[in-house]
Every structure is written in C-alpha cells, then in structure tokens.
Amino acid sequence: MTTPLPATLEELRRDVSEILEDPEVLTLAGDDDLLELGIDSMRMMTLVTRWNERGVEVGFVELIEEPSLDAWLALVSRGDRPGA
Question: Of the candidates 42, 47, 52, 54, which lies 20 to 30 Å from 80 by C-alpha distance?
C-alpha cells in the first residue's frame, strides 16, 4: 500500500514539516516562501522523490520556481498520476 499524495494544504504541510523536521511548518500560510523558511535543494529533492514514488510527476525545477505550499499543492493535485 502506498502513502496517498498530499491532497489538502494540511497534508502538504505535514509532508514539508516532516522533511524540515519542524512542527512550526504546520502553521504556515499557503503563500509563505519556503526558501526563506529554511527548505533547501536537498530537502526539495527528497519531496520530489517521495511524490514521484507516490505517482505524481513533479520536478525540482517546478518546486524551486514557486516555493510555496499553495503552488506545490497545485502541482501535486494537477492529476499527473498514472491513470488519472
């Protein structure tokens, strides 16, 4: 059984919070700049790998172009899943 994709802002916050090992992420606004809050390229690549393994095609360049929870939720929710 695979872990579901983050389908809500809260689920995405949990994924990012886990990667950053920072529970404060759970209270971030959707438009906060994640680069300013400490996410780096290695952590973004971890998220890319995690989400690709869950079946969504999202890349590092897409994440870095708009490093906010709102933008990332749009990316993972856009339907780029096998069979979608």
Answer: 42
Q: How far apart are CA 28 and CA 7, in angstroms?
A: 17
Among all chains, which residue has been given the structure tokens 């809050």?
37
| Cα angle for residues 76, 13, 54 (degrees, 5° grid) | 40
pLDDT tens per residue, range 46-72: 999 988 888 888 999 999 999 999 999
pLDDT tens, 4-29? 666 788 888 989 999 988 888 888 89
How far apart CA 12 and CA 7 sit, in angstroms, is: 7
Q: In terms of residues, how long is the chain?
A: 84
**One-letter amino acid for residue 11 of the chain:** E
